[in-house]
Write a structure and sequence with these properties.
With 303 residues, the protein is α/β, with parallel strands linked by helices. It has 11 helices and 10 strands. The protein has one domain: Spore Coat Polysaccharide Biosynthesis Protein SpsA, Chain A, CATH 3.90.550. The strands form 2 sheets. A 7-stranded mixed β-sheet has the order 3-2-1-4-8-6-9, with helices on both faces. Helix 1 packs parallel to helix 2, helix 5 crosses helix 11 and helix 8 packs across helix 11.
């Protein structure tokens, strides 16, 4: 994937909205805000929905934005992540945008990311959205922090084409393409961020992976216990997502951990040989999560 438009010839007439939701993320959200507002592409807005944080996240957000008029903060009572995201997207749309970029509060944009993505989409008019590769890192040195970083980088080592069974969410959208998907369904608590991507591809839309850029993603301190705790909740409500999508069970199974084609790419097979201990840790994590998922899904069906 190569950029065709040279820097300096970029037309900043296109307005970009970056949106994310937060919840008790004061330790890292300031860097996220700075990386967004510090982009060289100036025709952008940043819309943040705070999901009822009980720490000083709001004050950190406001300080990081330093009165920048492009920054909009929505304060919500604590609820589901999808609701907070949907509110931020609703506000962004009201600002008459051309592009929508959905991120997480623990991400930091590479320099010039917005410029490069707008450039690319202006030239490649048939492409409706981009998956932005996540460049995972963690300051923690414990085993499962390393495993999680390893796994994330494996999943992002997938080339330009988006496979039909990809679990990755397209994040940088033409706004008309995003609207075409129907957007986030706030009732789909598990994997709600990937559903617009799946719907868009099923309807014939074209999505590419933006191999020319990336976003840094802080995996923070990871243990197998906290991975299971987080996923256990999502698995317990995943039945709502499955039942709300056509052929939901088939889609979910085709994208399950061990069935993702990206895991078996030649480049990733080499990584397994180079890092056998981390590979075993990833396999064990997938086995544990699969077991937990089966239990939680069965429990939800019994209720």
């Amino acid at each position: 994937m190569k950029l065709v438009v040279e820097r300096g010839k970029l037309l900043e007439s296109k307005k970009v909205a970056i949106i994310f939701s937060t919840y008790n993320s004061s330790d890292y959200v300031g860097e996220c805000v700075k990386s967004c507002l510090g982009q060289n592409y100036k025709n952008l807005v940043l819309v943040v929905s705070d999901d009822g944080s009980s720490d000083n996240t709001v004050s950190v957000l406001e300080k990081a934005a330093e009165g920048d008029e492009r920054f909009f903060l929505i304060k919500l009572p604590h609820g589901e992540r999808g609701i907070a995201r949907a509110e931020a997207i609703r506000k962004a749309k009201a600002l008459d945008i051309d592009y929508l970029y959905i991120i997480d509060s623990d991400m930091m944009l590479k320099d010039n990311l917005i410029e490069e993505c707008v450039n690319y989409l202006q030239v490649n008019e048939n492409i409706g959205s981009l998956v932005i590769p996540e460049l995972a890192f963690s300051k923690s040195e414990n085993f499962y922090s390393k495993v999680k970083v390893f796994e994330r980088n494996i999943l992002n080592n997938a080339g330009e084409e988006l496979g039909v069974n990809s679990i990755e969410a397209a994040r940088f959208w033409r706004i008309d393409s995003y609207n075409f998907t129907g957007g986030i369904n706030i009732n789909q608590i598990a994997f709600e961020e990937t559903q617009p991507t799946i719907r868009f591809v099923e309807k014939g839309g074209v999505i590419k992976r933006a191999t020319f850029t990336g976003v840094y993603h802080d995996e923070k301190h990871v243990t197998l216990k906290n991975i299971v705790k987080k996923k256990k909740y999502y698995f317990s409500v995943m039945d709502k997502t499955i039942n709300s999508e056509k052929e939901g069970n088939k889609k979910a199974l085709s994208r399950w951990y061990f069935f993702r084609p990206v895991l078996y790419r030649k480049e990733n097979l080499k990584q397994y040989l180079l890092h056998p201990i981390l590979t075993l840790g990833m396999i064990f994590m997938y086995l544990v999560l699969t077991f937990v998922a089966v239990i939680e899904i069965l429990k939800s069906k019994v209720k």
